[in-house]
Amino acid sequence: MSANRTVLRRAGAVVALSAVGVLAAAGVASAHVTVHPESYAKGATDGMLTFRVPNEEDGASTSKVQVFLPIDHPVLGVLVHPRDGWTPKVTTTKLKTPVKTDDGTITEAVSQITWTGGKIGAGEYQDFDVAFGELPDNTGQLMFKTLQTYSDGKVVRWIEAPSGGEEAEDPAPTLKLTAGGGGAAAPAAARSGDAGSVKAADGSDGTARGLGIGGLVVGVLGLAAAAFAIVRGRSPKTDA
Q1: Which of 68, 75, 76, 162 supports an S-S bond with 145, CB 3.0-4.6 Å?
Q2: Distance between CA 106 and CA 100 in Å, rounded?
Q3: Which burial class, exposed, middle or buried, applies to 147 when counting CB atoms under 10 A from its CB (0-12, 13-18, 19+)?
Q4: Longest dimension (CA), the chain
Q5: More reliable by pLDDT, 228 or 171
Q6: pLDDT digits over 106-155, tens only?
């Protein structure tokens, strides 16, 4: 019986360590400012982008969010969805190269959106929705550099691009643009409601879900191994 208890303790330890690893990895995966969905077709029209901003500070709240839109490959027809408690300010910039569309020539585009007046508390995140009329069709990705300001004055600069295939420490939210006709955009993968800040635990992304499934598989295998060891230990010995 002591041997059986030892096996069970070891199996339990494996499962516990696996769960801790999964939770830690999931927390890291969802800690950055991100844009959803992660990709759209080049030239997509009439869609929505959701910028998800988590609060990473225990002793301060997020009080200001600035998202910078690329002007070299402009996003056209930008409209900001109202967010309770937050006041948006939209800045437009004249384009160096006007963009010709079916509705005429566009000479300026939104270059920055700033949200102030609200609060994202510790362990919470906030979604900011931005509708667009048309995405560019002459680039493979769009980087939306973002500044996150906390109530204690700290500013986190989410402006870095991946280097050498590795993720940057403070990566900018990046939207991949894939080949395939423009047309109407697919529904956004992460549409937010009209509620205020949401607990970060509710905002796990695809990576976190995948890690969770992997952890469950490891746990099940550990328990199965323990059960097999117990059954084997209880099997009656036969004479040679």
Answers
A1: 68
A2: 6
A3: middle
A4: 92
A5: 171
A6: 999 999 999 999 999 999 999 999 999 999 999 999 999 999 999 999 99
Q: Could you report the per-residue pLDDT of 11-32, keeping only the tens digit for each?
A: 444 444 444 443 333 344 457 9
Give the residue with greater pLDDT, 5 vs 88: 88
- Which pair of tokens denotes residue 44? 């997509």
Torsion sign (Cα): 34, 195, 186, 49: negative
Q: Name residue 169's amino acid.
A: E
Phi and psi for 117 in degrees, rounded to 5?
A: 95, -20
Helix-, strand-, coil-residue percentages of the chain, each rounded to 5: 25, 40, 35
| 12 contact partners, CB below 8 Å, separation of at least 6 | 226
* Phi then psi dihedrals of residue 123, to 5 deg: 75, 15
Do the beta carbons of residue 51 and residue 237 sit within 8 Å? Answer: no
